[in-house]
What does this fold into?
Amino acid sequence: MEILPTYKELKRFLNYNKKTILLSILAVFLLTVTLVAYNIYARNQSESKKQDYISQEEILTISEKDPENVTLEELNSMNEALEADRYEFSFSVEDEFQGIVSNQYVIYSAITQEEVIEKVEAGAGIQIIPNPELAITLVNDNDIMKVSIGTGNQEQNQLIAHAYYDLISNGNIPFFSNKTVYQYDPAPVLEEENWLESAGTQLVNISNMVIIIGIIGVIIIAVIIGVLVAIVKSVFQKTVPLMYKLETETTDKVLQYTKLSKMGEEEFHNSLTYAVSQPENKRKLVLSDQDFSILNQYDSDSMEISDQPRIVVSKEVSNLNPSYVFDEVIVLVKLNTTAKSWYHNQRIQLKRMSAYVTVIVY
It folds into this structure.
């Protein structure tokens, strides 16, 4: 007994349920696009809501307290405010004799000397608040020095960063007078902008790959879901679907006449008539739950065999003359129209007959 469907049956199933599958694929795509769009919208909304940080005055008040009097909450609030909207730029320093200067502490000390701070404040036109030690940070990233300015005020961060940038670029800091300075940024930028700028190309490449993989993944998942929806629909629908198991006995024969539905009405009637009437020397019972107008011609045109019509058309086995004997029973099943309950009811009643059963699916 065949359990798995054949290639032709699978092909017919997919073709017959293509509308359901395509609608399911479309629904999955729309759902995916909606979820992605909502995710982007939610992220943008979250990013657009700037956190409320403490003011410069509050930062100054906390920084002037004795360390033992500063609470952890105050310290965290001050650090968050100083790290927000920082401006930064990167550079490296090369000594003619020693090569690249990699000691960040030496460079930090050089750029935070009192005379340098005075020049920066003069160039920016503002005072560095709360103090240079808190507002100016320097990080060594593979011998590339990254200066970050955070005062708790974005506009002041920008002014101070530009003043520092100009001093270092023009060699107006004594420590850099006999050294070569390489700038890696055309101008100071916000930290997040600088990060995107340095990793932009890589992000674009990753994004393209992720998009391609994502599209392929969504297509595969959508097709699988579409097929599963078609299968579930076939299992739970009340009418007989394609690839439905119609055989109940090993002697049953199932003929697929699904292409008849694409014919004209007259051609359809002729083909169905021929399928039912052959061979002519057998007594046949034709069962169908559909309109008898298609099949009534069998009764009028059929000959009698032993006082019994050669072909008897009926909707129910229970409506038959008990004295009739049949060589073959033909059950006509119209896809997605013939009720499963009707078909199973007829098959149960046919178990009393010795005639073999042919199921014609159209």
Summary: The chain has twelve helices and eleven strands. The longest strand covers residues 87-95. The mean pLDDT is 81. The CA atoms of residues 322 and 360 lie 24 Å apart.
